[in-house]
Amino acid sequence: MIGFKQIFGAMFKEKSRTTWLSLGGEAVFIFLVSLYFGIRYGFSSDSAGVGIGIAAMVIFCVGIWYQIDVIMAAYRVNRSQTWRQVPVTAGNFLTANVLTGLTTAVIFALANLLIFVITLLPFNFGGEMRIDSQAMATFQPYVSSIINWGLYMALFALVSFAGGICFWLLITESASVLGDFLPLKGKTSKFAKAVILLALLALLSWGSSSILGAVIGMVSNSGFDFNFVIDNTGLHTSQTDLGLPVISWLYMLAEIVYVAILWAAEYFVFKKGVEAKK
Amino acid sequence: MKALEIKDLSYHKNSKTILERVNLTLEAGKIVALVGANGAGKTSLMRVIAGLAKQYKGSVEVCGEADEDRRKQYIAMTDSLSAFRDSRKIKDVADFYRLVYPDFDDKQFADILEFMNLNADERLGSLSKGMKEKLIIALVFSRKAKLYLLDEPFSGVDAMSRKKIIKSMLLWKPEEATLVISDHVLDEIAPVIDEVVLIKKHSVLEQRSAEEIRAEHESIEEWYEGFYEGEE
Amino acid sequence: MKFKDNLPIYLQIEDYIYLQIAQGKLKAGEKLPSVRALALELTVNANTVQRALREMTAKGYIFTKRGEGNFVTTDESRLEEMKSKLLKQELAAFVSRMEKLGVERESLTGLLASYLEDTREE
User: Fold this and answer.
1) What are the residue ranges spanned by the domains of chain A?
2) Which alpha helices (H) appear in B60-180, and where do they start and end?
3) Are residues A77 and A97 in contact, defined by beta-carbon separation less than 8 angstroms?
4) Domain total for chain C?
């Protein structure tokens, strides 16, 4: 048998191929586009900003495509005979699948950020940056709060994305497994499975929004004002409390519990029902 | 310890019976032909044994191990390599096998590749059916397993490649390992098999020693065809 | 090696080795190829080869030296016996085939004599 580290390593090696290829293609395209606009209009001119705009658009679109691809890759791995013959426990297999999806997505996101920043560089040096030193001064006390919220949001995004992978695996695989119990085959079977998938999607979406709605309700009834504002003096809540309130961690906990439930449900479906494709 | 022990196996899908009341015991060291008409359930049986098919009833034990995931460590099954794009090279596939199978032997893989006249730098997309099948066999026998499952390794394969595959079975199957090879045509593998298991009507209809059949002056093929007399 | 599939292969392997001995390709007391080598050479299962060797050992045509392998017997009478068995097999097959062609036993010697006369090398 092999352990979690080995299956994670093997999956990461395979999945990251798409990551590097996408990043490579993206980077080359954006580089050429920015170069074109910068040379054509000069790096400091406003028209050169079109280059940045295009870069942002490409990154945004590729980002969306990539997120979908991560989920599809996870689905394919779960159903691939090559992968399912590997001597590893179902728990390690599924966890590695979800986590490699998450890891490659994070790498992709960070790399995209880097690409975007690098695209900005020539425009920055060519152009003018006016720094309002007075605004910076009033910004100062809020920096730690911004960092705290930033970290919180990043962690929340990671948990949510992992949950998203589990969510989609769960409904697509459940639809497939349930569909196999019906006395249908061929196109009718595929149609039935699609119908079941949509039903599960509706059911689970309602379920998740109910849970999160309940948590939000809990939060709003707690007396804490959850609104926060970003203006030219920085980020602040309407109260003077600048730290991360306990309530936001309860929200995070709810999300973690929800994702854990999704993972457990998916584990059950995976271990008991998901067959490797012939 | 038996290489394979199946008790009361039944497997249904889409409300259709694929296998039912299957009982099968295989000893270590044997080469067993799994025969039956197309769609009789040979592939499904192998998939159940390998833990690739789910929702079946009954017990399946490989080397005494019943757990679906744990018994995979004793099984080496032919894999269509569908997870790899045509642009991947043979050595990439070997790298993958090395990562996930602790019993994968690099040297053996190189030896078998040479025997099969394959080059590790070739891309999957450039391989003919025969070459791909030889590669699949090379990967299977580079692993030191207790139960080898070869699912129709000869279909669509040219005669020379078939001979190579059969020779490789004799060269690289470990002495104590059991090999199950499924096919619906018998002439080439007949001389090398110890036992025949016939799948008909969703179950194991017969399990006989090959030499026993021959002692009754029937070729394995004649014996097998005898079960389909009157059916067209 | 192409074996008939309607006759136990181990018997055919035996015959093959007997033939080798009768033809002098394997001498008395000589070491036989290993089980694996024979299996590969004949493209058969090692188990079948082992069965053939077991039968041959039981009949006394070969013997096993522990740790060294299988050897052809040095007992000349045994080898003679083996050879005459082979010849008898050939004759039996010939007679049976001729009978199937409608030739009667009494005419066999005559037919054979005239054939040998016709095909005598000058």
Assistant:
1) 4-129, 137-273
2) 90-100, 106-115, 129-141, 159-172
3) yes
4) 2
Is residue C37 in some structural domain? yes
Interatomic CA distance for residues A180 and A200, integer angstroms? 16
Whether residues C18 and C56 share a domain: the answer is yes
Distance from CA of B52 to the nearest CA of A (A): 5
C93 and C35 within one domain? no
Instruction: Tell me how far apart the alpha carbons of residues B68 and B77 are, in angstroms, rounded to a whole number.
Output: 14
Spatial CA neighbour of A146 closest among A211, A242, A233, A78: A242
Return the partners of chain A (3 or more C-beta pairs < 8 Å): B
Using CA atoms, how far apart are residues A98 and A22, in angstroms rounded to an integer?
20
* Domain membership flag for residue C2: no
Tokens found for residue B65: 């191990």
Three-state DSSP string of B87-118: CCEHHHHHHHHHHHCCCECHHHHHHHHHHCCC
| CA–CA gap between residue C15 and residue A14 (Å, rounded) | 55
Q: Taking CB atoms and an 8 Å cutoff, what residues of chain B touch C13? A: none
pTM above 0.90, yes or no: no
d(CA C61, CA C57): 6
Q: Are residues C101 and C43 in the same domain?
A: no
pLDDT in tens, A222-240: 665 555 555 554 555 554 4
The answer to whether B227 contacts chain A (CB < 8 Å) is no
Sheet strands side by side (includes B75-77): B75-77, B147-151, B178-183, B31-35, B195-200, B203-209
Domain CATH code at residue C30: 1.10.10.10
Residues C14 and C59 placed together within one structural domain of the fold = yes
Q: Do B192 and C44 touch (CB under 8 A)?
A: yes
Per-residue pLDDT, A85: 96
The CA-based dihedral angle spanning residues A181, A184, A186, A191, taken in that order and rounded to the nearest 10 degrees: -80
Confidence class of residue A215 from pLDDT cuts 50, 70 and 90? low
Beta carbons of A76 and B77 less than 8 Å apart:
no
What is the fold, at CATH topology level, of the domain defined by B4-228?
Rossmann fold (3.40.50)
* C67 and C87 together in one domain: no
Give the C-alpha separation, A116 to A106, whole Å: 15
CA distance B153 to B163: 11
Q: Give residue C45's domain range.
A: 9-75
Q: What is the mean pLDDT of each run of 10 residues along chain B (232 residues)?
A: 95 91 96 91 95 94 95 96 93 96 96 95 94 95 97 90 92 95 85 94 93 91 87 66
Shortest CB distance from A80 goes to which of B13, B16, B83? Answer: B83
Q: B61 in helix, strand or coil?
A: strand
Q: Identify the pLDDT of residue A240.
A: 47
Q: Which chain A residue shows the shortest CA-CA distance from B97?
A: A86
Interface membership of B211 toward C (CB under 8 Å): yes
